[in-house]
Amino acid sequence: SHFIPEICSHVIILFPGGANGESVTQPDDRVTVSQGEPVLLKCIYDTSYISLTLWWYEQYPNEAPRLLLTQREASDEEERRSRRGFSATPDKQGKTFHLKKNSSELRDSAVYYCAMSDTVIAICFLTVVTTSYFTGR
Questions:
Q1: Is residue 35 part of a domain?
Q2: Which of 39, 51, 67, 103 is the most exposed, having the fewest neighbouring CB atoms within 10 Å of its CB?
Q3: What is the pTM of this model?
Q4: Which residues constitute the domain of residue 47?
Q5: Is 11 a member of any domain?
Q6: Which residues of the chain have pLDDT under 50?
Q7: Could you tell me if 121 and 58 are in contact, meaning their C-beta atoms sit under 8 angstroms apart?
Q8: CATH code at 67?
Q9: Is residue 38 assigned to a domain?
Q10: In whole angstroms, what is the distance from residue 121 CA to residue 18 CA?
Q11: Total of domains in the chain
């Protein structure tokens, strides 16, 4: 069974990254989409570093977070499959690293972490529901 919360509380966790004022934020702490709709999970970062590494993790209930993708391109077919259609490209001008997927699946319901370095993390809950969830059928 998949994690489909009916109510999620407002949760954004931000760990300051030290003297350089690094930060990562996800403006939407909770996103709900219908199955088959596109997904956009926003991630905005701020850093003074020119060279940086960004990650997206996903976590299912009672499981450890799993690396979903980094900013580099998938290196082989196995890595492409493990991304399940998710993609993210850093925009260094706008300082964003949004996670996108063209068509959501029920199994995409999870907690997603946008991370920059080991200490700067933000969290968003994604819930994918069937159309009947909205229509009451």
A1: yes
A2: 51
A3: 0.73
A4: 23-135
A5: no
A6: 1-19, 132-137
A7: no
A8: 2.60.40.10
A9: yes
A10: 13
A11: 1
DSSP 16-85: --STT--EEE-S-SEEEEETTS-EEE--EEE-S-SS--EEEEEE-TTS--EEEEESSPP-SHHHHHHHTT
Helix, coil or strand: residue 122: strand
Strands (DSSP E) contained in 75-119 are 99-101, 110-116
Flag whether 6 is in a domain. no
Separation between Cα atoms, residue 15 and residue 30, nearest integer Å: 19
User: Which residues lie below 8 Å from residue 136, measured CB to CB, with a gap of 6+?
Assistant: none
Q: At 35, which amino acid appears?
A: Q
Q: What is the pLDDT of residue 85?
A: 92
d(CA 69, CA 101): 12
So what's the pLDDT on residue 81?
Answer: 79
Comparing CA positions, the residue from 123, 136, 133 lying closest to residue 8 is 123
The residue whose two tokens read 């196995």 is 78
